[in-house]
Amino acid sequence: MEAMSNNIAVETSGGLVVRDMVREDIEGMLEIRQLYLESKEGFAEDVADVIGYPDTIMLSAECNGDLLGYVGAYIERKQIVVGCVLIHPCVWRRGIGTALMDRLKLELQTRNLKAIMACVYDDSLAGQLFLKAMGFRYVHTTCKDEYRFIYRPSKL
Length: 156
Known about the structure:
Elements: E1 10-11, E2 16-20, H1 26-36, H2 43-50, E3 56-63, E4 66-76, E5 79-87, H3 96-110, E6 115-121, H4 125-133, E7 137-141, E8 146-151
């Protein structure tokens, strides 16, 4: 993936575009979210309220106008805290999650932040392996049976 600055959409190989989320993405987000979680009450309003806030990072991955996945994160204490990464199951293992996480790593650099923090449920082996493959390391288990991982860029 080539370098990008904030608010720039970048096309990766295969036509995948990772860009800042816009309000028009909410319907596609709801469709993907519904595949994982039953409740969607209030979700659209919550997302619409935070799109564009300076301390939030909401990214969409799309190809040919179809929303394939998204990430929602916020900035706290000089680090990016990932709240959610959801990829449509029909495109798992095709680089969508990797492209989104690569964009978060670029946000880390452009915003001069120190780390990316992410949690994954203890029963999600795929999520744990994904974070490890992306360079995250395990930190500890939270009181909610989640595993906390952290990514810190290597110093040159």
